[in-house]
Specification:
The chain has 253 residues and is mainly alpha-helical. It has a domain of 88 residues: Hypothetical protein, domain 2 (Endonuclease III, domain 1), CATH 1.10.340. The protein contains twelve helices and two strands. The chain has a two-stranded antiparallel ribbon. Helix 3 packs antiparallel against helix 9. It is elongated, with a radius of gyration of 20 Å.
């Protein structure tokens, strides 16, 4: 007998109430199935930023704000050749640094954050990037997202879930969270998923967001979560049912 996960989809003014009903209602077998489908679709999903050291990842992640990883990777090659360590960044000529990172956008504030962070690294940590969340988020331009990226990928320390624009959008669309802020969305995700999957989850959702579940025109028919996803907020075409029945395919597992 095949198990069916039924998710109610209220329309119009009832939409928010429906989302609230879904909160905390996702069963463990659905979470497991979601991970299985994403792993199959994106094997080996990993951080797409180019880096070799924790410092390089820290700088690259600061540059990635409001910028694609592809663009950042085009910039960091010559950037890391010019500046080898935290001292180099801290003592860099600001105008020269800005010119090198200009194409990533917001280059004035990013250059300032990089230099001020590297000065602190030199003064307090011997030029090294600290491997703990509390210390990282004290650095200029470093929030929980950046800290989680550095800890999870450069140090292998699982401190939380990276919630970028892709993860934030998909968490709501898939029904993993009804929250709107990254901090609250992260709380929902760490509650739903085992700690051992937190870093992997971010990579998988980011790949999904880049490939099929895009902001404006999600390619739902070609999405690996097509049957599992309640498609919250996605415009429907033609007649739609007030209920979405999702076949998790557990009989085949």
């Amino acid at each position: 007998m095949r198990l069916i996960f039924e998710i109610e989809k209220e329309m119009g003014s009832e939409n928010e109430k429906s989302e609230e009903k879904m909160k905390n209602k996702i069963p463990p077998f659905a979470i497991s199935r979601l991970l299985t489908l994403l792993r199959k679709a994106y094997p080996g999903a990993a951080c797409s930023l180019d880096y070799e050291t924790p410092l390089q990842l820290l700088v690259a992640t600061i540059l990635s704000a409001q910028c694609t990883d592809v663009r950042v990777n085009m910039v960091v090659g010559p950037l890391f050749q010019r500046y080898k360590n935290a001292k180099d960044f801290a003592e860099a000529d600001r105008i020269e640094l800005e010119m090198l990172i200009q194409s990533t956008g917001f280059y004035h504030s990013k250059a300032k954050s990089i230099q001020e962070s590297c000065k602190i690294l030199c003064e307090k940590y011997g030029g090294n990037v600290p491997a703990d969340l509390d210390s990282l988020v004290q650095l200029p331009g470093v929030g929980r997202k950046t800290a989680n990226v550095v800890l999870g990928n450069a140090f292998g320390i699982v401190a939380g879930v990276v919630v970028d624009t892709h993860v934030s959008r998909l968490a709501r669309r898939i029904g993993l969270s009804t929250e709107k802020t990254p901090e609250k969305i992260e709380k929902d995700l760490v509650r739903l998923f085992p700690r051992k999957n937190w870093v992997e989850l971010s990579h998988l959702l980011i790949q999904l967001g880049r490939n099929s579940c895009k902001s404006q025109k999600p390619d739902c028919p070609n999405c690996p979560l097509w049957e599992l996803c309640p498609k919250i907020g996605v415009p429907t075409t033609g007649a739609s049912s007030p209920k979405l029945h999702v076949d998790l395919g557990l009989a085949n597992n």
